[in-house]
Amino acid sequence: MAKIDKLVAAMQNSQTNVKYSDLETVCEHYFGAARQSGTSHAVFKTPWPGDPRVNIQRSKGGKAKPYQVTQVLKAIDKLSKEETK
């Protein structure tokens, strides 16, 4: 869990230069296995319809796309707010 917390904290500090594999690890922790993978995208199921979606894609150099890192952070925030209700 500490590793996941460190990765999320690093992503919150900077959405650029995030390794795709790190983002995928965080998504799997919070949302389970991807319901679609093996293509250019990995799509994760969320407990709500619509945005923020969790759909990640590898960019050049093995990095995650910054706007997708932002979407994942919003989804994690929404998920944690729903758990505290």
Describe this structure in words.
- This protein is mainly α.
- It is built from three helices and two strands.
- It has a two-stranded antiparallel ribbon with strand order 1-2.
- The two termini are about 20 Å apart.
Question: In a few lines, what is going on in this structure?
Answer:
By secondary structure, the protein is mostly helical. The chain has helices at 2-13, 20-31, 66-83; strands spanning 41-44, 54-57.
Keyword list:
two-stranded antiparallel ribbon; 85 residues; single chain; 3 helices; 2 strands; mainly alpha
Topology, element by element:
Blueprint: H1 2-13, H2 20-31, E1 41-44, E2 54-57, H3 66-83
Antiparallel strand pairs: 1-2
Largest beta sheet: strand ordering = 1-2
- CA(first)-CA(last) distance: 22 Å
DSSP helix count? 3
* Proportion of residues in β-strands: 5-15%
Mean pLDDT: 89
Radius of gyration: 12 Å
Shape: globular
Q: Outline the low-pLDDT stretches.
A: none
For the biggest sheet, the summary is: 2 strands, antiparallel
The percent of residues in helical segments reads 40-55%
Specify the structural class.
mainly alpha
Question: How many strands in all?
Answer: 2
Spell the H/E element sequence.
HHEEH
